[in-house]
From TrEMBL:
Listed cofactors: Zn(2+)
SUPFAM superfamilies from the UniProt entry: UROD/MetE-like (SSF51726)
Pathway stated in the Swiss-Prot or TrEMBL entry: Amino-acid biosynthesis; L-methionine biosynthesis via de novo pathway; L-methionine from L-homocysteine (MetE route): step 1/1
Domain spans labelled Cobalamin-independent methionine synthase MetE C-terminal/archaeal: 427-748
Protein name as it appears in the record: 5-methyltetrahydropteroyltriglutamate--homocysteine methyltransferase
Organism, as annotated: Sulfurovum lithotrophicum
Catalytic activity entry: 5-methyltetrahydropteroyltri-L-glutamate + L-homocysteine = tetrahydropteroyltri-L-glutamate + L-methionine
Single GO MF annotation: zinc ion binding
PANTHER family, per the entry: 5-METHYLTETRAHYDROPTEROYLTRIGLUTAMATE--HOMOCYSTEINE METHYLTRANSFERASE
Gene Ontology biological process terms, A to Z: methionine biosynthetic process; methylation
């Protein structure tokens, strides 16, 4: 009989208990023992969920008070010098969040997910020492509850690969310092019990792997596996295929290899080699990153296909990755439409799916409850295949006959006409869209949603905000205005709520970083736009000024990348459907006399595939769909786009191919560094590099902005430059925004006079 396996479980708590207690602790409203108490309760609850669902391999050390990479840094004694002298929780949370004397460690995205980890900082001369307390304590904690866990660790190669060197050197040079600590750790784990299983996560193996890194795998896992006789080592990978690393791992003493068969189809090529090695295959087949009900019979068929190469008893049935990237449980989704809810599975529901799949695959007899569950699964999937709410003939027909992929006119033709019509000066000033979201605005949105105020009252509050926002921009002397986005809680959700084919959860929280959670909307069906989404607000704003009001939309790729996306259609198709809806919105805006329209693609870079081989295809449809979205714009309608902090070097040609007339980018922290590539490649469209950082409450001085603009002018000519802040201003306060923008406008005046 085969066994089942959970790579990892979410930890924030189904009612976000961990978030709440952490924030209370940080606000000094409770002490650390309360945090520990809640953490212990959550761990116990999560272990029990898995035990009750009949899961064989349940993890310890998948829990964390903030982040597992941070835990690993602590475990290895990789403490940056600025935190020396601190201890325990004070040290831990200072590293994560900074304190009055020391800035926090950097945070970045975990592969292509929306989870962010703390980036460890390593120095060549630092010394490291093992601290295995968290790991051994959690193992014992579970054991005391009658649960024997596998121990989850982040592997040394991934740890080094994701860390940074304070002296900019190569982190892998520290391999020989770190490996002995892992060896010692495995010995300590071995002493915890007669027999222990350890899951070592090496997701870095799914990226393009350099020969240098590949050559570390064998010495690494020979050493680790030989550290203790009673420890079984599993190397776990996810999010893509790991064929290169697998070829090496089969020649090491690892006990098992975890591969993702949902996001790494190429892993099928590794089956023969694994079969020959006699190792266990942890087969990732229940989606750890999405919310759809598994198609159980299709999954069992997939496993049977694997079983043509590998003996069933060597196959362990698993989630494709940790369930960290899915919400907890459908239990609290009381308001969701029954039909839609029936298509979903969150982490807790996935446990039962896994158990059922495993039983069917092993040929075990099902209980009556299980038989019913299987029937229910079959009919839920049948309903997804046929429901009219998902399959919209009109959308499909329009998509198949749609042929307008390009705007009229070349960039050169368009920009000449636009300058004629719009008459803006070099170094034209604008902002990225949102203005401070005041308590009043948030309250009005909330009250309108729950019915406490009517549409009239709501509209009035929003219009008053827009009035003030417009008045401020006029007084301040900004040239191209925005309405301020008071009606939007989020740049994706706002559009999702108005598009058909989108669903929303009440409690579908997923950890983003630390105590921060996001609740992504989900695309379940064909997307269409029942009516205009932004025209009324933007037209109202335009009616309040003689200046040009810029219309504000979110682009198809960003909408896609910040949602859970249906898995019954390629992402590129879903993206095209969204693009059509935006295309119509652009058209409606220009017909309402809006002359400049910004289509934000803040998450364009985030959607990049992990393997370079897949990049051209992504770029192809991502660019196509941006162009589709703006293809309704007439020559004289100026299209802007906006992207947040990115390295543009690798993607500059792609950005250029999007062919927006103007792109604004977040660059202030880099000075003019990020802009240089635009000049190097002879980028021709106009660019608005951010002149100040909006993530900090600091007010930039006129002089400082003048300096920044001068730096920019060293790279690109004034005719090609716009002046704006880095990003939207919604997280800032008016007291910060007003003087900052006033200084920005003054700085532009000074520079213009000098030119
Ligand atoms: N238009 C959006 C805003 O200003 C853009 C957000 C962003 O920069 N990511 O809020
Ligand atoms: Zn931005």
């Amino acid at each position: 009989m085969s066994k089942n396996y959970i790579t990892g479980f979410p930890r924030i708590g189904e009612q976000r208990e961990l978030k709440k207690v952490l924030e209370k602790f940080w606000a000094k409203e409770t002490d650390f023992s309360e945090v520990e108490y809640i953490a212990a309760q959550l761990k116990a609850r999560h272990w029990n969920y898995q035990k009750e669902a009949g899961i064989d391999f349940i993890s310890s050390n998948d829990f964390s008070l903030y982040d597992n990479m941070l835990d690993t840094a602590i475990m290895l004694g990789a403490i940056p010098a600025r935190f020396k002298g601190l201890e325990n929780e004070e040290l831990y949370f200072s590293m994560a969040r900074g304190n009055k004397d020391a800035v926090a460690m950097e945070m970045t995205k975990w592969f292509n997910t929306n989870y962010h980890y703390i980036v460890p900082e390593l120095g060549q001369t630092d010394s490291y020492a093992l601290n295995s307390t968290k790991i051994t304590e959690e193992y014992r904690e579970a054991k005391a509850l009658g649960i024997t866990t596998k121990v989850n660790l982040i592997g040394p190669i991934t740890f080094l690969g994701l860390s940074k060197r304070t002296d900019r050197g190569d982190t892998y040079e520290l391999f020989s310092k770190i490996l002995p600590l892992y060896e010692q750790l495995i010995k300590e784990i071995g002493s915890l019990d007669d027999h222990v299983t350890v899951q070592i996560d090496e997701p870095i193996f799914v990226k393009d792997i350099e020969p240098k890194v590949l050559s570390l795998i064998k010495p690494c896992y020979d050493t680790i596996c030989n550290a203790a006789d009673n420890v079984n080592i599993i190397v776990s990978t996810y999010f893509e295929h790991a064929t290169e690393a697998t070829k090496v791992l089969v020649h090491t003493p690892v006990w098992g290899i975890g591969l993702d068969f949902l996001y790494g189809g190429k892993n099928f090529e590794s089956l023969e080699a694994i079969a020959k090695s006699g190792k266990k295959l942890i087969a990732g087949i229940v989606d750890g990153r999405n919310i759809w009900k598994n198609d159980i019979e299709a999954t069992v068929a997939l496993l049977e296909k694997i079983a043509q190469s590998i003996e069933k008893e060597n196959i362990i049935v698993s989630t494709s990755s940790s369930l960290l990237h899915t919400p907890f449980t459908l239990k609290y989704e009381e308001k969701m439409d029954e039909e839609v809810r029936n298509w979903l599975s969150y982490a807790v529901e996935k446990l039962d799916e896994l158990n059922l799949i495993n039983k069917l695959f092993s040929g075990e007899k099902l209980s009556n409850t299980e038989k019913n569950a299987l029937d229910a699964n079959r009919s839920a999937n049948e309903s997804r295949r046929s429901s009219k709410r998902i399959h919209d003939k009109a959308v499909q027909e329009r998509l198949s006959t749609f042929s307008r992929f390009e705007r009229e006119g070349t960039y050169e033709e368009r920009i000449a006409i636009q300058h004629d019509v719009l008459q803006y000066k070099p170094l034209a000033t604008t902002t990225i869209g949102s203005f401070p979201q005041t308590a009043e605005v948030r309250k009005a949105r909330r009250n309108f949603k729950n019915g406490t105020i009517d549409e009239k009252a709501y509209t009035k509050t929003m219009q008053e905000y827009i009035d003030e926002c417009v008045a401020f921009q006029e007084e301040c002397g900004i040239e191209i205005l925005v309405h301020g986005e008071p009606e939007r809680n989020d740049m994706v959700e706002y559009f999702g709520e108005q598009l058909k084919g989108y669903g929303f959860s009440q409690n579908g929280w997923v950890q983003s970083y630390g105590s921060r959670c996001v609740k992504p909307p989900f695309i379940y069906g064909d997307i269409s736009r029942p009516k205009a989404m932004t025209v009324e607000w933007i037209s109202y704003a335009q009616s309040r000024t003689k200046k040009i009001m810029k219309g504000m939309l979110t682009g198809p790729v960003t909408i896609l990348n910040w949602s859970f996306v249906r898995d019954d259609l390629p992402r590129s198709e879903v993206s095209k459907q969204i693009a059509l809806a935006i295309h119509d919105e652009v058209n409606d805006l220009q017909n309402a006399a809006i002359k400049i329209i910004q289509v934000d693609e803040a998450a364009f870079k985030e959607g990049y595939p992990l393997r370079s081989q897949n990049i051209p295809e992504y770029e192809n449809w991502a660019v196509r769909d941006f162009r589709v979205a703006v293809s309704s714009a007439r020559k004289e309608t100026q299209i802007h786009t906006h992207m947040c902090y990115s390295e543009f070097n690798d993607i500059i040609r792609t950005i250029e191919a999007m062919d927006a007339d103007v792109i604004s980018i977040e660059t202030a922290r880099s000075g003019n560094e990020l802009l240089k590539i635009f000049a190097e490649v002879g980028y021709k469209q106009e660019v608005g590099p951010g002149v100040y950082d909006i993530h900090s409450p600091r007010i930039p001085s006129v002089e400082e902005i003048v300096e920044q603009i001068k730096k920019l002018l060293k790279v690109l000519p004034k005719e090609q430059l716009w002046i704006n802040p880095d990003c939207g201003l919604k997280t800032r306060k008016w007291e910060e925004v007003k003087p900052s923008l006033e200084n920005m406008v003054k700085a532009v005046q000074i520079v213009r006079e000098e030119l």
